[in-house]
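Quick question: who can interpret this fold?

. . .
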Amino acid sequence: MTAEPAPKDYPRASAISHATGTDFPTWVQRLDGAGARDLDHTAIARLLVKDWGVQEWWAQSLTVAYEQQIGRRVVGQSCEGDFSASASRTVGGDMDAVREAWDRFMTDARREQLGLSEGRLTDTEKWRYWRTDVEDGTKLSVNVTAKNGTAENDTAKNGTAKTDAASSSADSSAGDSPRSTLSIEHKGIETAEARDAWKRAWKSTLDDFTTWIKENRDR
């Protein structure tokens, strides 16, 4: 029988340790002690959330790594292949203003909670992008595009984004005021369970973003 590789040798072990505050070998010991070798994937992830307070999406990543460690899953193998999660929200403001608002909203503390690196900004004629790497090895792209023609026109006419427009209420429908759709695309997720966890996380994040815009409309 082939000996199990040391837990520290597994991909994402460092990211898991950083995100949870506990090194991966210790997690292996804890899970072994809790009888996790006799549990299925869902039960292990649930155990991590319930008994140790691990955030749901990290519980999924940690469960995959643990299953690799005990030989239930080969390194690099997903349950059913790569999965993706997406979410979107339409808010008031032109493309530049909405992306600027998102960049301000994504504070160091919020990015650390979600395991995100600092955002990278790129532009095309019809899109504004905020992209980043996720500590669990997945990829995130936040894409902003005009909901109607006014956002692009305002930027072209004035040469600057109307930043205060991004602070309009998300459910505002005032006439020709610029509105933009912010879409989250999260790819490379290992399992269906992790995908569902990230979907819930991004819905909650967009809810918080909408509230943040309302509270910061005059700042």
